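Hello, quick one for you while I still have it in my head. My current little project is about how a certain protein chain folds up. You're getting the sequence in one-letter code plus the fold written as tokens. Would you mind checking whether the tokens look sensible for this chain? Here's the protein in full, and shout if anything looks odd to you:
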Amino acid sequence: TVTAAGTTLVNRQQAWVNTSSGAFTVTLPASPVKGDSVRIFDVAKTFDTNNLTVGRNGNPIMGDAADLVVSTEGAAFELVFFDGTQGWRIITI
């Protein structure tokens, strides 16, 4: 299914995201363990006009204590959880 509104992702989910109706946030899983992953795809190619925010849900993203704002049209990427210090890492673009 296509995600067109805010939701919390689960491990191994492939999120087909459509922000054509407006920007929103998808939230990463709350209690990830090493190796958990999610994939996010901009199916409508609208992240450049209606940004997607990836909510960190208490864990870092790329080692930073900040949510990830995606503003690249057509973006598709995978995040894999490493640990509580480095958090979620972008491994596939």
Observations:
- The mean pLDDT is 96.
- Residues 20 and 46 are 6 Å apart (CA to CA).
- The two ends are 21 Å apart (CA to CA).
